[in-house]
Each structure stands twice: as structure tokens, then as C-alpha cells.
Design a protein that fits this description.
Shape: elongated
CATH superfamily: OmpA-like domain
Order of helices and strands: HEHEHE
Strand order of the largest sheet: 2-1-3
CATH class: Alpha Beta
Strand content: 15-25%
Number of helices: 3
Structural class: alpha+beta
Distance between the termini: 21 Å
Number of domains: 1
Largest sheet: 3 strands, mixed
Number of strands: 3
CATH topology: 60s Ribosomal Protein L30, Chain: A
CATH architecture: 2-Layer Sandwich
Radius of gyration: 14 Å
């Protein structure tokens, strides 16, 4: 919550991601739920949320099936749009 209160931006973009351990359909829904959860917190802090999207497993940050790679792929990315 403190992060969103300190953001000096026109708005933010919130993108959810998953690892590849479940089906594509499940991961798309899960990534959207992750992004929506962060969006709710941002909106409650008064931030202008411009876009919220789930990408599932389609944009991995790390390759492979190691625990470290899977962990990096389970994430929510927040982009600030400058005024």
C-alpha cells in the first residue's frame, strides 16, 4: 500500500504472470486474478490504474523448470506512466 501512495505517475499498468506448471487456460485465469488483486490495492490507495492484464505463462522471465526459474515467472509487474 505504501508503494502505491508514493507513486508519482499519471497512472499504472499491472500485468500478472504465472509459471508453466498448469494448463494454459488455468494460468491465464490465475494471472488475471493476480493482476486484479494488485489493481484493487492500487485503486484503494487512489492510484489511476490504466491497464490490468494477465499473460499466463506466455512471457516467462526465466527458462527452465528449476525452482528458481518457476519462482521468477510467478510475478506481477507494475509499470508507471509518467505525467
Amino acid at each position: 500500500m505504501n508503494f502505491f501512495r508514493s507513486v508519482d505517475a499519471f497512472g499504472i499498468l499491472i500485468y500478472g504472470h504465472t509459471d508453466a506448471r498448469a494448463s494454459d487456460e488455468y494460468n491465464m485465469k490465475l494471472s488475471q486474478r493476480r493482476a486484479n488483486a494488485v489493481s484493487s490495492i492500487a485503486q484503494s490507495a487512489g492510484v489511476n490504474v490504466v491497464d490490468v492484464k494477465g499473460f499466463g505463462e506466455r512471457q516467462p522471465r526465466a527458462q527452465g523448470n528449476s525452482a528458481a526459474a518457476l519462482q521468477q515467472n510467478r510475478r506481477v509487474e507494475i509499470y508507471c506512466v509518467a505525467p
